[in-house]
Specification:
The chain is of the alpha+beta class and about 180 residues long. It has a domain of about 130 residues: Hotdog Thioesterase (Thiol Ester Dehydrase, Chain A). The protein is about 30% helix and about 30% strand. It is built from 3 helices and 7 strands; from the N terminus they run E-H-E-H-E-E-E-E-E-H. The protein has a 5-stranded antiparallel sheet. The chain has a two-stranded parallel sheet with strand order 1-7. The model has no long low-confidence stretch (mean pLDDT about 95). The structure holds coenzyme A (COA). Coenzyme A binds next to strand 3 and strand 6.
């Protein structure tokens, strides 16, 4: 684990409520966004998700933040040309220098009067960094509603699983390498 850029235990930052950094990014899909089937390309949605989550992470941490990982990107329904897509993002959980941002993607169909429909979701981990790209401490997020508290608890579960999975894979690779099973 990297030593933080502003490592000073005396310097406790004040927490920030979830609503301070929550955002919605809206975008109308056009013909340049389509895949070969004529619906919107998943990569276009992923870019919007990363943009919205990055804006939230930057706002929460008060400076630059980089994407460390993107988990569980789920596409529930196709998005079509002309749909108005809303990407809602908020900080679910904060660690020392990292933040989990939860993103929900909704589409207002251009040819229907029905309410916006959820078409996707994702969880991203961002690390706040200084000018040298070194991780720096982030303010703790303060969940405000019961839904925010549930999202915080769920994010803690995902964090525990991410760390356990990384550790298990690292140990397996080290073991196989020590046994000479994996070539250079
Ligand atoms: C993300 C990055 C800053 C981490 O730096 P590092 O030197 O490995 O530092 P650390 O191991 O201390 O990790 C910093 C934090 O990020 C978290 N983190 C790092 N890699 C992670 C991953 N793959 N998944 C989830 N969290 C991760 C760590 O758990 C740590 O969190 P904490 O401080 O809250 O405990 C560094 O790997 C990086 O710059 N990556 C490239 C980012 C980038 O360019 N993104 C755009 C993609 S095109």
């Amino acid at each position: 684990m990297t030593e933080l850029a502003t490592e000073n235990p005396e310097e406790e930052q004040a927490g920030k409520p979830t609503s301070v950094s929550r955002i919605t990014l809206s975008h109308i899909m056009t013909a340049v966004d389509t895949n070969l089937l004529g619906t919107v390309h998943g990569g276009v949605i992923m870019k919007l998700v990363d943009d919205a989550a990055g804006a939230v992470a930057g706002r929460h941490s008060g400076g630059p933040a980089v994407t460390a990982s993107m988990d569980e990107m789920v596409f529930l329904e196709p998005v079509r040309i002309g749909d108005l897509v809303h990407v809602r993002a908020q900080v679910n959980w904060t660690g020392r220098s990292s933040m989990e941002v939860g993103v929900r993607v909704l589409a207002e169909r251009w040819n229907e009067s029905s309410p916006a429909q959820q078409v996707g979701s994702a969880y991203l981990v961002f690390a706040a960094v200084d000018e040298q790209g070194k991780p720096r401490r982030v303010p703790q997020v303060v969940p405000e509603t019961e839904q925010d508290k549930r999202r915080y608890q769920e994010a803690q579960i995902r964090r525990t699983h991410r760390l356990a999975r990384r550790r298990a894979i690292k140990e397996l690779r080290e073991r196989r390498s020590a046994e000479g099973l994996d070539g250079a």
